[in-house]
Write a structure and sequence with these properties.
Number of helices: 14
CATH topology of the largest domain: MetI-like fold
Number of strands: 2
Largest sheet: 2 strands, antiparallel
Number of domains: 2
Radius of gyration: 24 Å
Strand content: under 5%
Strand order of the largest sheet: 1-2
Shape: flat
Length: 317
Amino acid sequence: MTRYFLDRLVQSLVVLGVMSFVIYWLMGLMPGDPIDLMISADPKLSSADAERLRAIYGLDRPITERYFNWLSAVFSGDLGFSRQHAKPVLTVLWPALGNTALLLGLSFLLAIVIALPTGIAAAIRPYSKMDYLINFLAFAGISLPSFWLALLLITLFSVILAVLPAGGIGTIGAEGIWDRSRFLVLPVATVTVVSIGDYIRYMRSEMIQTLRHDFIRTARAKGAGNGRVVYVHALRNALIPVVTVVALDIGFLFSGALAVEIIFAYPGMGKLIFDAIMGNDFNLAMVALLFATILTLLGNLAADLVYSWLDPRISYK
């Protein structure tokens, strides 16, 4: 087990190193740089001033040399400053990461709590009216564009009924936690609806296949009830592919649902990354994208741990 996790740690570090260079290289290929923005903001800057500023910031050097300079600064604990916010990168990043964790974490948990029992119910009675209804709703959720659903919910609950705010983020005030949570209702509902369909489909498909295995027929022959067969014998085996899908979604969740965050003016990771890239805020964009990579790798590692818990036959010795 220890050797396995050491191997995975080395692999993750290699992937993270490669991704850091790829992200840095792609951002270096983007047209314009912070100096161009300074020139557009101050027409008095001459071309000589621009060249001097590029030399000061190291933007006149080859991209490989700039990358290794950035990497050495990271190892020394200096992640740089955000040009747009005039603050250290981590100072800007943590609030956005917390907002995204709250929004998409709630959406993720709600989707799992609804999708797993619904997928099981559809698999127990395949091709029944209930199964067709659940499949229809799942495909509808998959097919709905998140931006269209967000606009529809804003129109209904904020414009017509005027019961929920159309966007932003609140604070805990006189009305208690409701002051903050009412700003989350529509974004959480949007992300939950567009993600729940995939989980239902995977859960239904895997449960149907698992219920056809020989060990399920053996359990029924021994007199096990339907509930025990489904929730004790079949569920743990059917969850293994679902765990894989959920683990791959973790990086997406914490990099933010860009369309949802923009429409609801929610200050999360997706909006932060988008604004940083559009504003040539290289330090902030680099660190934010690497955080998404790290969370994806951690999600895959967590999935491996869950595999061994779901199926004791899986060993990492």
